[in-house]
């Protein structure tokens, strides 16, 4: 069978090679009940907790975020922020 303009080899030559990109995954592993801690770990004196939202494209630019500052488990400060506005202090 001779090749013509509809053949697969002509089509596959026109398709560019695939790009190789790293894949990043998040995972959560369930600890078997027998291996769980017998008691909860102690709380830190100070804790800083961040949560951010980014754009879904490859640049992952910041859209907005919040943080909480805790001292001995008590909320000391709660702030929201964006790249286009000033920080807004949300009183506890």
Provide an overview of this structure.
With 92 residues, this protein is mainly β. It has a domain at 43-92. Helix content is 8%, strand content 33%. It has one helix at 8-14; strands at residues 46-54, 62-71, 74-82, 88-89. Strands 1-2-3-4 form a 4-stranded antiparallel sheet, with no helix packed on it. Strand 1 (46-54) and strand 2 (62-71) form a beta hairpin. It starts with 7 loop residues before the first helix and ends with a strand. The mean pLDDT is 77.
SS elements, strand count: 4
Structural class: mainly beta
Q: What's the N-to-C terminus distance? A: 77 Å
Mean pLDDT: 77
Helix content: under 10%
What order do the SSEs take from the amino end to the carboxyl end, as H and E? Answer: HEEEE
Cα shape: flat
Strand order of the largest sheet: 1-2-3-4
What's the story with the biggest beta sheet? 4 strands, antiparallel
- Indicate the multimeric state: single chain
Q: Low-confidence segments, ≥5 residues, pLDDT <50?
A: none
Beta-strand content estimate: 25-35%
* Count, helices: 1
Q: Please compute the radius of gyration using only Cα atoms.
A: 26 Å
